Amino acid sequence: MPKYSMIVEYIGTNYSGSQVQPDAVTIQSELNKAICTLDKSIKKTIFSGRTDAGVHSKGQVVHFETCEPIVASRFLNSINGILPNDISVSKIEEVDERFHAQLSAKYRRYQYKIVNRNQRSVWDGHSLLVREPLDLKRMNESLSYLIGEHDFSSFKSMKGTNPAKDCIVYKAECTKEGDIIIFEIVANRFLYNMVRTIVGTLLMIEHEKLKPEAMKEILEAKDRTKAGPTISPDGLTLVEVGYEEFPAMTLN
Amino acid sequence: MPKYSMIVEYIGTNYSGSQVQPDAVTIQSELNKAICTLDKSIKKTIFSGRTDAGVHSKGQVVHFETCEPIVASRFLNSINGILPNDISVSKIEEVDERFHAQLSAKYRRYQYKIVNRNQRSVWDGHSLLVREPLDLKRMNESLSYLIGEHDFSSFKSMKGTNPAKDCIVYKAECTKEGDIIIFEIVANRFLYNMVRTIVGTLLMIEHEKLKPEAMKEILEAKDRTKAGPTISPDGLTLVEVGYEEFPAMTLN
């Protein structure tokens, strides 16, 4: 059967996460509805991974199979005409039958947007407002302890049920432009709530003026109660899912 | 009486324009309500000018007088706590008693955001999607005919009642970054719907493959029926109101 992958973008604010759930409107339920209108032979969609309620996407990858080949460009136009305004598809292409949106993925890249100024603005977009001045150098020092393969139990939701806690973090870094701080993290996989808890811990370390080494101690404790809060999903966006190995030179 | 000016930002989507009107929710009505909660001695607010329904702001200037001096920083915090999410104030400062938000203004700067690609994206923000490829060089040639002092009757709404039709345009230019085109126009004043009609005319010239000189002919006709449509307000933002002369070197 012909197989296609697509890049799905969304503003997650009005959805109960990406994955289909009974009695909830999710990204996948809306996507499936739109796809079904176009081609009834499509039985299911496979996402690269779940995103929590309220989390956004610029790069979610979804694959599906059809009975007959489709014209990707026409399908793209049609689906963007049907989907709600807060979901769009930026690309559709045919893929090899061995491709699997979740299992073939080598890494995921997330960004969290922090606005670091005294006043809110209607132009801040999806972000977290932090009024106290943040020290980028200290933050990046804290984050450096996360790089590499570790057990991330300290940063997972109590609700997560997957017993595997090891992740390889390839990159964890903040950059600043004006009063906007972008936290970017790339890993082979993420535990439930992991990015939001890492950002919450990073801000806790700054807020309580702990040493950057506190991040190392929290990581090594493998104890969720040592970490900071799971912060608002509104600043978080899945920006890319990679299907090639993450460039090794970035793993420092 | 002490006098203050503030910079008011808003997403205009949910408002019937900036100016107070009976039986309509406007930027000014919401602002007045918030201000009155903080200081009952403030009798009125004066805007630098009106913005149409659905038009946004990053730089609307508003002045008001109080009976007693206020602490600007505290007032700023308080008002942002009261205003709806789609209105914010970025700055408040005391001004000379001769300052007048509208009458002292030397120029207004507007931007219109055009997304020039085949597909919509949830990340386009407040903009107009134009699917056919646009030629930046031709567009800027068309716009060059607007620079200087002219009668802009061709670009005013039939509804406008102000008999004065002359405006001095200091700048009218498009810049492109990726697939985002920003049209920027600076003038001493604007007629009702003028910016949106200029953009509509610019796109009409491109769409119908007219010569860029068509803009000159339309301007000189002083006839609204010769110009293009008044385009959607959603791409339009008032970005600055200037109280110094616009730098002359830009007037080419």
Give a verbal description of the structure:
Two copies of one chain form a homodimer. The first copy, chain A, is of the alpha+beta class and 252 residues long. The model of chain A has no long low-confidence stretch (mean pLDDT 95). The longest helix of chain A is centred in the C-terminal third of the chain and has 14 residues, at 194-207. The first copy, chain A, folds into two domains: 3-95, Pseudouridine synthase I, catalytic domain, N-terminal subdomain (Alpha-Beta Plaits, 2-Layer Sandwich), CATH 3.30.70.580; 107-242, Alpha-Beta Plaits (2-Layer Sandwich). In chain A, a hairpin with an 8-residue loop joins strand 2 (46-47) and strand 3. In chain A, strands 1, 2, 3, 4, 5, 6, 7, 8, 9 and 10 form a ten-stranded mixed β-sheet that branches. Chain A has five helices and ten strands; from the N terminus they run E-H-E-E-H-E-E-E-H-E-E-E-H-H-E. At the A-B interface, helix 2 and strand 4 of A face helix 2 and strand 4 of B.
Q: So what's the overall shape of chain A?
A: globular
Ends apart, CA distance between termini of chain A:
42 Å
Q: CATH homologous superfamily name of the largest domain in chain A?
A: Pseudouridine synthase I, catalytic domain, C-terminal subdomain
Low-confidence stretches of chain A: none
Number of strands of chain A: 10
CATH class of the largest domain in chain A: Alpha Beta
The CATH topology of the largest domain in chain A is Alpha-Beta Plaits
Number of contiguous helices of chain A: 5
Q: Which protein chains make the most extensive interface, counting residues with beta carbons within 8 Å of the other chain's beta carbons? A: A-B, 20 and 20 residues
Helical residues, percent of chain A: 10-25%
Total number of distinct structural domains of chain A: 2
Mean pLDDT of chain A: 95
Largest sheet features of chain A: 10 strands, mixed
Q: What string, H for helix and E for strand, traces the elements of chain A in order?
A: EHEEHEEEHEEEHHE
Structural class of chain A: alpha+beta
Strand content range of chain A: 25-35%
